[in-house]
TrEMBL record:
The keyword Hydrolase applies. Belongs to the glycosyl hydrolase 1 family. SUPFAM superfamilies: (Trans)glycosidases. Keywords: Glycosidase, Hydrolase. GO terms for molecular function: beta-glucosidase activity. It holds the Pfam family Glyco_hydro_1. This is 6-phospho-beta-glucosidase. The lineage of its organism: Bacteria, Bacillati, Bacillota, Bacilli, Lactobacillales. One of its GO terms (cellular component) is cytosol. GO terms for biological process: carbohydrate catabolic process.
Amino acid sequence: MTKERQFLWGGAVSAAQCEGNYLADGRQPSNFDYLPLDDRRLKAVYKNQAASILESTGDEIYPGRNGNDFYHHYQADIALLKELGVNSFRFSISWSRIFPTGEEAEPNEAGIQFYEKLLTELEKHQIEPIVTLSHFEIPIQLVKKYNGWENRRVVDLFGHYAETVMRRFKGRIKYWIPFNEMNMVLHIPFIGGGILFEEGKDNLSIQYQAGHHQLVANALAIKAGKQIDPENQFGAMLAAGKTYAYTCDPKDVFAALQQEKENLLFSDVQVFGDYPKFFAHFAAEKGLKLVIQPEDRAILKDNTVDFVSFSYYSSACTAAEENGIDRVATNGYTTLRNPYLPKGKSVWQDDPLGLRITLNQLQDRYHKPLFIVENGIGTQDVFTEGQVHDDYRIHYLHGHVKNMLLAVEEDGIDLMGYLMWGIIDLPSVSEGKISKRYGVIYVDQDDENNGSHQRYKKDSFAFYQKVISSNGAVVFE
């Protein structure tokens, strides 16, 4: 792909969705551990009605507390990834496994040791770690005490956590992503920011204040990380996907432009070191009340990212007036159904060309190396006699990898790598169901955590193996 560096083919998971064992070895719960497998989860995810999420009736199932038991299967899982042929693996570190309440002075050594062993296993198989420090996780005590990232105190606590981890793993991790999909704090605030909405409060301002605090924490993590090891590389990470205008009516085109500016707000700050020009008017129009400390602007300006990473599942579509147009799911929110896109087996519309368009959009905007750190399809799979025939996943991967490579070869995109999301089946964020499967590795487990947890290779495993071994050439055959 590029002569300067090796292209990173791999997969991605998060601690919140895969590790399980949420009270093991000194760990304490995170916000994600309080998302039940019932309608309260959907209210928390999509309707921001999370006030009752901390209350328990005693009979809930909490998928995050179980994950796919990666905590005990990591060695076998890494061996499967080596067989697959990956040279990189993105995982996150659980903040509550290192600092159980978030406010300890010293880290939980048992938590540190788990990641020590995981890194050793990756090193044994020559797999490059890409590490996220906060992937939709914050210790639950910080939610209860500070309402998560609403409070400035959490910036300092995160800084202590980030610096501790970066010092302990110095020289073993090069690529760091401080926050997963930072822009999702505006769509799923309890998950993205540990925020509990309350009636009578200015909740929109709270969301943007939380986003600002994460931006400052992100910049301070970069500052500390570069001092610890100048070889460290830091990436912004956003939920991306081109927003199309529903029609060529200029009003629809302008609506799409406005939506994209808002979606790219946080990555703009991470790349350019300042809020974009439109934001002052936007904040006044929305009545946002933000507290920006005098030192914040210098912190943001002096500590920008080295690369821009993103998730891509599907594109979005918008109009000035919706007028009853059908809506469909996309990553963390809903969007207008695009009449030019098919709806396949996934919950979202399949738009592989949209990935190429998104790559061009981000390259033209940021002039930074790009990194696809999540891409995949969440579907029901049929498991029969140790096999899963997932031709739909192969079709999805084929189209997206092909358009990615065309973007590199024909459009000149500077791309670091491609990581398939949920490469080992894990419970989904929005629904909490492992039956909404993403992986090329099947986990024998149902939504209620029944099953052997044994791993099996799907048909897509062999296909992705060929993609990697051919450096993508197989998609053009």
